[in-house]
Amino acid sequence: MALESPARRSLVSLPTVIRRTPGATAPSPRVGEGRAGSRGHAQVSIDDVTFDALREHEVVAHVFAALSRGEGGNLITPNVDILRQLRRPQLRELAEQAELVVPDGMPIVWASRLRGEELPERVTGSSLIWSLSRAAAATDRSLYLLGGAEGIAERAAQRLQDEVPDLGIAGWDCPPFGFEADDARLSDTVDAVVEAEPDLVFVALGFPKQEKLMVRLREHLPNTWFIGCGGTLTMVAGEVSRAPEWIQRSGLEWVHRLAMEPRRMAKRYLVHDLPYAAGLMARSALAGRRRA
């Protein structure tokens, strides 16, 4: 039994219907040729990471079709910064193990166009939390929110309740910084999610911490979908505002984030991500010319 803490609560007043398939197990990872086309839709390789060529509504449909069959999965949404890190062999398997990988970053979409293998649109965690929540409410599925500073997940859960009628929240948790290095705290966090038995878990701990935890949680809840969503809960809770839609479409949301959090984001965007993005475009353009 997981211990209660001030950072963890179960919103028991909300309706929750849990559907499980006894004996279901997690499918094997999608790797290499075995992964391509295995989901019945196109897939595009960008810097050796295979993305699913789906629009947001198709991602939602895929997740809920799988849930109806009693199948869970991991869904990761790499942006440029995550894609840069996924070039490391020890981290790339996190994408290879995921059931769905969609681009949370316009430069990745642009790179696919340069290659001549177009990803149809950007699919962000900060949008999916709303579209998946609406679908969950319509089908009596439950959510669990995991991550953020103390109080963030609770406020995010409350806002989702307020704006999505009949949404079931199985629980929420804001584990303390560094919890993953403490076996007892990590077990407590895992136990709380397992005990809640949610259908969808939004994991907002940053890459690669959230993806590693998703792999571990999947072993215990093979019928659940886990969505890595970075700073999404902070946005839903109202701590950080999201860029206007026209900025999102233009691919300049990173400029908005930089202006909002310059001390935290400057090194990431200016030192690491901009040079990598420039190289990504050059590599993709060369690959496109070779394909032509």
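the 2nd protein, sequnce then structure:
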Amino acid sequence: MSTQAPTTELTDIAALESNLSEPTPHLVEMFKRLRGDVLIMGVAGKMGPTLARMARRACDLAGTPRRVIGVARFSNPQAAHELEANGVETARGNLLDPAFLDSLPDAPLIVYAAGMKFGSTGNEPLTWATNTHLPSLICRRYPNSRIVAFSTGNVYGVVPSTRQSLEADVLNPVGEYAMSCLGRERIFQYFAQAHATPVAILRLNYATELRYGVIVDLARKIWTGEAVDVTMGYANVIWQTDANAIALSLLEHTASPASIFNIAGAEVFRVRDVCGRLGELLDRPANIVGSEAPDALLSQGQKASQLVGAPRVDLEQIMKWTAEWIRRDGATLGKPTHFEVRNGKF
């Protein structure tokens, strides 16, 4: 992957989405090698639209004609219209409906981004159906496709703040969301072995952009004078452009048995220190409460970086972009990450 960072002038949503969907040279070259259409399951989530646009742009630059198709219920029809305006086809329906799933076109390249996190507490049956039953339906429908499947670093549980979770670590999920995500992984692993389906499981934490993410959560609290509880005192984040590029590039590293990769930022940061820097950038004092626990949800992404390249946008740049966005009253999704949650209840 090239070390050249994506475009840096983020003055409005159009510029932001162009940045978030800007493919790397490595990704373009990969699409010259891999053949066939790309199907993105759960495309209407926070990462899906820019990931789909990045795939479309990379395929076009590679000169390899193919369809890029995004699948979701599209409760907001505008999301489908915007994808279609950028060359991404859409298929609208409930993936848990076997008839709808059967109606989807064949595709040798699958990105599985469907899942349920927020609202999982109190709606546990749907959480488990979405996170564990649906993967089995996908694997039965596409046994011969390459599948990259998003999971989460929550499956590790907290680790001492002096270290980061590695792919071979013993898993310790806390709460039904994290347990159901481990269930999702086990289903993909089963079918990777039983049907020789090439799979890569991607444990992500935490992708961030200017409308959503850990840094946005902290910056908005500082801007509005809210208290920032630093009990979850450490984190690592990855700029969403980098997360998208790494995830798509790992289509080339699917395997049977399933391969597993962390997708995470290179820098572990102390939340208190980041709040201090954001306070400087925003000219507002950070109202810190609490004290740091000795452990946190932390992952190391070096394994994936060694294969497809390291993240190109560092933490300082993310903080500068975020502070400027908040200063200009830039649009946000209004959906806190709840990264500070320690009991697994989302």
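The domain at 13-210+239-265+297-312 is CATH 3.40.50.720 (Rossmann fold). The chain has a mean pLDDT of 94.
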